[in-house]
């Protein structure tokens, strides 16, 4: 973590603590503390200080909500951590590798792939492919060859076990908008 990030987080924590402290003790009666805060709150400057603290708290909260919402999910990465560091491979890169391996077959016209990443001590990958092929192909043989090539390509690319490669074929006919499963 960079030093300016640490600084901002410390400032954020102080602002939140002050806002919560002031709000709590002004709402609930704690005798002397509450009485002193009420006396201070009658000062002209108190409104501006308290409003500033509340506004900063709200801005920081909005910032962290937006940051959390747009941050990529851990599920979008193949993650491996060890004492030397952390390795992240994006799901997009793995999907591109799968499409490239499947499209290397002359019979395959286009490929759509979906990858499921299972992170843990021994990360695993599951691949599901939909391949467009012309009719009249030996699909069993082609499917087995695609499975083998995709599995080998992924294991060489990532270094991790490929748990399964599922291949689904559909008819590729340039003249038809109806793509039926072969």
Uncertain parts = none
Report the radius of gyration as a whole number of Å: 29 Å
Give the termini separation: 53 Å
* Beta-strand residue fraction: 15-25%
Portion of residues within helices = 40-55%
**Overall average residue pLDDT:** 85
CATH fold label of the largest domain: Alpha-Beta Plaits
Name given to the CATH architecture of the largest domain: 2-Layer Sandwich
Order of strands across the widest beta sheet?
A: 3-4-5
Biggest sheet: strands, sense, closure? 3 strands, mixed
What class would the helix/strand composition place it in? alpha+beta
- What is the chain-wise order of helices and strands? HHHEEHEEHE
Number of strands: 5
CATH hierarchy class name of the largest domain = Alpha Beta
Shape, per Cα inertia axes: elongated
Tally of domains: 2
Number of continuous helical runs: 5
The CATH superfamily of the largest domain is: Cation efflux protein, cytoplasmic domain
Oligomeric grouping of the chains: single chain
Tell me the layout of helices and strands.
Elements: H1 3-27, H2 32-41, H3 44-70, E1 77-82, E2 85-90, H4 91-103, E3 110-118, E4 124-133, H5 139-158, E5 161-171
Parallel strand pairs: 4-5
Antiparallel strand pairs: 1-2, 3-4
Summarize the structure.
With 182 residues, the protein is α+β, with helices and mostly antiparallel strands.
Description:
The protein is α+β, with helices and mostly antiparallel strands and 182 residues long. It contains five helices and five strands, in the order αααββαββαβ. The strands form two sheets. The protein has a three-stranded mixed beta sheet with strand order 3-4-5, covered by helices on one side. Helix 1 packs across helix 2. The longest helix is centred in the first third of the chain and has 27 residues. The model has no long low-confidence stretch (mean pLDDT 85).
């Amino acid at each position: 973590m960079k030093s300016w990030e640490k600084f901002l987080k410390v400032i954020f924590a102080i602002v939140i603590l002050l806002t919560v402290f002031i709000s709590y003790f002004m709402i609930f009666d704690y005798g002397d503390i509450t009485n002193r805060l009420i006396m201070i709150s009658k000062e002209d400057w108190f409104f501006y200080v308290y409003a500033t603290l509340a506004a900063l708290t709200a801005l920081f909260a909005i910032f962290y909500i937006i940051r959390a919402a747009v941050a990529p999910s851990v599920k979008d990465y193949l993650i491996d951590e060890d004492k030397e560091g952390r390795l992240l491979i994006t799901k997009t890169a793995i999907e591109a590798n799968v499409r490239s391996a499947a499209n290397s077959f002359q019979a395959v016209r286009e490929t759509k792939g979906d990858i499921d990443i299972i992170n843990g001590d021994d990360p695993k990958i599951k691949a599901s492919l939909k391949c467009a092929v012309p009719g009249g192909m030996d699909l069993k043989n082609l499917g087995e060859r695609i499975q083998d090539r995709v599995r080998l390509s992924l294991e060489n690319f990532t270094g991790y076990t490929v748990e399964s490669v599922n291949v689904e074929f559909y008819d590729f006919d340039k003249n038809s908008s109806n793509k039926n499963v072969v």
